[in-house]
Amino acid sequence: MDLWNLATFISIFNIILLGALLSVYISNFLLLKSKFSLGLIIFALLILLHNLANIYFQATMMKEVLFGSSDFACLLNGLEALGLLSLVYVTWKPDA
Fold this sequence. Notes:
This protein has one domain (3-92). The protein contains three helices and no strands. It has helices at residues 3-32, 35-60, 69-92. The model has no long low-confidence stretch (mean pLDDT 88).
């Protein structure tokens, strides 16, 4: 698997994580009607849009990008995945 395919796979994984987070954020907003929940929904939707655009550009423009940029795409997508995993953990972590 080359690094562009890995970067695309990580973006798809990020979209799955964002879908899980959005389901919680939307249900919280419908229950609480708080501005903070609405802000979380907007934030998650913008990151979702970023990942969808990322997949599109990786699929259609791979031949036009600079050699070696796939390393940075994997790094950035991986860091984003770690951040989203921490949000998923905090969101579903049972209170002690």
